[in-house]
Amino acid sequence: MTATAEKTQNTGESAKAGAVPSFTVTLKIARFDPETDSEQHWETYEVTSHATDRVLDALHQIKWDQDGSLSFRRSCAHGVCGSDAMRINGKNRLACKTLIKDVNPDKPITVEPIKGLPVEKDLIVDMEPFFDAYREVMPFLITEGNEPTRERIQSQADRDRFDDTTKCILCAACTTSCPVFWNDGQYFGPAAIVNAHRFIFDSRDDGGTQRLEILNDKEGVWRCRTTFNCTDACPRGIEVTKAIQEVKRALLTSRF
To answer: Which intervals hold domain 2Fe-2S ferredoxin-type (predicted)?
Structure first.
């Protein structure tokens, strides 16, 4: 055997030895088409997956190879855009960050839209109520006085004060995990409060009092019941409940 042939054989054997084993997974998906359905129903699919596959990969297989009518949102597929939030085995998760092997693939994996928002089709919900609340808390820097002639300086300690809440990707996983939000469509919800927190505690911002007045509304921060659902659901690990408590404390003490 020539050296080239021996190298080729060894490479092939290595690839075979390192192959990722495959297995069959059953997905039970909530379906709803407003043009044909009067209510939501479940449909079951089987796909071949590997240990490194995510739920999003399985959904792609179904849409591309089995049923092109399946509808869901996704964009970056890397846990940054937040568009593929859905309920997987009863918990709010990002499909692109959820490995199939981590959600008990020996049993059917249930996939349904996040709760509390109107379902438009299959796994797609109307996000406008969510973004309405987000816009209402004025999630942008508000300053007074003349435009500065140089960069606004901020210490590392001041930056650390609101660092955690800058991580929000507006996936709505926290808000749609909240029982208060499910039962009261007027509640601002955790994500809006988190994004208000990000600016209330920014030392460069002058709009904190305005935001606190907005959140002091009957459907604002006081509706939180501190169940920690939001913190558990956040795919970015934000301490959502802690942020909400800090906003409450700022309202009570006028210190922020």
So the answer is: 23-117
